[in-house]
Design brief:
The protein has 14 helices and eight strands. By secondary structure, the protein is an alpha/beta fold. The model has no long low-confidence stretch (mean pLDDT 93). It has helices at 12-21, 25-34, 37-54, 93-106, 122-138, 153-161, 176-182, 188-201, 218-230, 257-270, 280-285, 289-295, 309-312, 327-336; strands at 59-69, 111-116, 143-147, 166-168, 204-211, 235-240, 300-303, 340-342. The longest helix has 18 residues, at 37-54. The chain has one domain (57-342): Alpha-Beta Barrel (TIM Barrel), CATH 3.20.20.
């Protein structure tokens, strides 16, 4: 295998050039994932330069999220949403439309993420599809992002016909055995098939991984970077593993924020025109984590202002003490990062 000759820790440009060219790719990615201090800052600078090529207007997208339901057919080892003792809820189609209208008119939002536990029940999907159709009729310039997991090709088509513009479906891990170890009720091949269905139907697609999953190796991260980049996605992401309360992984060690930030920077370098979020999980584990995500190349922020207050504690993901950024926090970090917030 071709190796990188004469590498010095400060020579990040050489490492990134190898990554972009696919030369000594695995070695270069591993070196980049390990950098800290001044070398890490240099990596972030290269990532921001790549972002500026893809987004010369320096815009950062803000999206509101509505957590439609916490009913989930999965019981992932890292996620607390599927806990049996959690009170279950579903927001009705009428309420979803009213929430979207409020966010549009009162908050000026133009991008709405509709998220739920994974649920392909026909009645539930029909409820969300109906709401999406009404939203697009009333608010045609509202961008809708679906995120409710694996569905059938026919169900994805219904969402597309209702006007849903984008769909988020995290691959979580590109190695099938790792994916199925953390998501024991799912098959990697089914997840991959869903990504193919979404592409065939013409969605703008987002996918991503979790950095620090139990059993994950550096080789996995190398493969994850190649897998995500080869898909030529419209949205890419990396979040840091947080062991959820009342989950199988509750006692596991959290993922490393610095490695996650470095992976995000590499994602940006490989995907200069993709939207990439800086997630609340970064802030949960490290003060100023979301700002650092922007400095590592991210250009999307998510605000949890669409879920009714009475349901927010029922959608825990990792625990009920999630960091929920408000509008002021997001505006401040975007401005600090030299970006321009757009709706």
């Amino acid at each position: 295998m071709k190796r990188i000759e004469g590498f010095q820790n400060h020579d990040l440009q050489t490492i990134c050039s190898h990554i972009l060219a696919g030369e000594a790719f695995a070695e270069a990615v591993k070196l980049a994932l390990r950098v800290r201090g001044e070398s890490q800052q240099r990596l972030f600078e290269i990532a921001r330069a790549a972002r500026l090529q893809g987004f010369p207007d320096r815009r950062a997208e803000i999206r509101s999220v509505v957590e439609i339901s916490n009913i989930c057919k999965q019981r992932c080892n890292y996620c607390a949403i599927g806990c049996e003792d959690t009170q279950k809820y579903v927001i009705s189609a009428q309420d979803l439309v009213e929430i979207a209208s409020f966010l549009y008119r009162e908050r000026g939002r133009r991008v709405l993420l509709l998220q739920s536990g994974e649920n392909k029940d026909a009645r539930f999907v029909a409820n969300v599809v109906r709401a999406c159709g009404e939203m697009k009729d009333k608010l045609p310039d509202l961008q809708l992002i679906g995120c409710i997991g694996n569905l059938s090709h026919a169900q994805y088509r219904e969402f597309k016909q209702a006007g849903v513009d984008r769909y988020l479906l995290k691959i979580e891990a590109s190695r099938p055995s790792l994916y199925e170890s953390v998501k024991p009720n799912d098959r990697w091949s089914d997840r991959r098939r869903c990504l193919e269905d979404l592409a065939e139907l013409g969605f703008r697609i987002g996918s991503g991984i979790i950095v620090g999953l139990p059993g994950q190796t550096e080789d996995d991260l190398v493969a994850d970077l190649a897998f995500l980049s080869d898909l030529h996605l419209d949205m890419v992401s990396a979040s840091v593993f947080i062991p959820g309360r009342n989950t199988f992984y509750e006692q596991m060690t959290p993922g490393d924020v610095e490695t996650t930030l470095n992976f995000m920077a590499l994602l940006r370098i490989k995907n200069p025109t993709a939207l990439m979020p800086t997630t609340s999980s970064l802030e949960k584990l490290k003060a100023d984590g979301q700002y650092l995500g922007l400095m590592a190349g991210a250009n999307t922020v998510t605000i949890h202002d669409g879920t009714p207050p009475e349901f927010q504690q029922l959608f825990p993901i990792y625990d009920q003490k999630r960091f929920r950024p408000d509008d002021h926090h997001l505006r401040v970090i975007v401005e600090r990062a030299g970006l321009r917030l757009v709706h």
